[in-house]
Amino acid sequence: MFDALSSKLEAVFKKLRGRGVLKEEDVKEALREVRLALLEADVNFKVVREFVGRVQARAVGQDILSSLTPGQQVIKIVNEELAGLLGGVQAKLHLAPNPPTIIMMMGLQGSGKTTTAGKLAKYFRKDGRRVLLVPADTRRPAAAQQLATLARQVGVDIFSSEEKDPVSICRAAAAQAIQSLHEVVILDTAGRLQIDEPLMDELRQIKAAVKPQETLFVADAMTGQEAVNIAEAFDRGIGFDGVVLTKLDGDARGGAALSIKAVTGRPIKFAGIGEKLDALEPFHPDRMASRILGMGDVLSLIEKAQAAVSPDEALSLARKMQRNAFSLEDFRDQIRQVKKLGSLDQIMGMIPGLNKMKLGDAKPDDGQLARVEAIINSMTPKERTDAMIINGSRRLRIARGSGTQVQDVNRLLKQFAEMRKMMKSMSGGKMGKFAKMFGGMR
After folding, report:
1. Which residues touch 286 (CB under 8 Å, ≥6 apart)?
2. In CATH, what number does 101-295 get?
3. What does the DSSP 8-state code read for residue 182?
4. Where are the domains of the chain?
5. pTM of the prediction?
């Protein structure tokens, strides 16, 4: 989402870093370009004006201009102020001291509210909590069925009732959650194509009836400044505790993410970064600021890797590498682990420096991973264990079975052979230390 903004800011900062001495005019000129880049990214103009004013007040001081690395100091200030603009520190959900914790989701139709309710249920489910999803949207056709499908996919309970009144449904669900010892109740309320008073009145009644610990406004980041305007209207009419920004992986300009906290005063608590049910992340303002400025987000990447790979799996892999016993079966498993981390584009964006590489028209190809996996799946178990037995006729069969070309199979086998050769050369050094490191974790 922030690619265009990141590129423009990087160009501005490259000029600053290239100068050994900065004058006040240099800083002001750079900030004019920053201001233009933010406005083009659809950030609220009042937010931009105040942001640039704060940066300029800090950046033109003598301590900055006379430092050994004035360009880096200015970038540091922009990074800190950008993190502040996004909320400063991570805003966590408020959980009830005595369960259940009731979370009320609200937003316009099409914002991704029901899907987000499912994603949030999975987020709590992974943490070992019992979750009850409540379909409180009685107006949209198939809304309850959609939520029930999500509940089955996530492995949580769904509340069912013959009631047609959303307030009664939510009240009954809250009462049942206490009896059934559910720890989290997520209310999927109705939306509209646009704000109207009947909707607001219904949401106010639900909030008054169940008194949720968290009221979350779901905003579609692709709608830009309109999402900020809608958030303001919901906050005035009902009030909410935090924002969930959906479709943050899209190609919109990112103005909603950079404006919504400053305009509404409400923090962004979660970000939807894909269509899969595990594509929901707690929002970290400092990490997002670093990614926007092209500095990567290694902490989030490490957390994703830790969630995807267990210590036992990592230790087993390290030992196989040490013994030079790494097979195509293991290679396929590693591809599946990488896919759990997200798209290659997202992964590259988290690695400092890699997101700035000039790839031209070339883009990270997630389809290539799928093709490699398909080729390995078309092999027999014996072929995956011992790639040396794969002759010409076997390669032709594998290519036909995977819907690829023989040259694709040849390329994979060549790359795999080179990988094993590299691992063998490392077996006594770094790979041994890697195995010992994971062995010490047990």
Report:
1. 83, 88, 89
2. 3.40.50.300
3. -
4. 3-85, 101-295, 301-439
5. 0.67
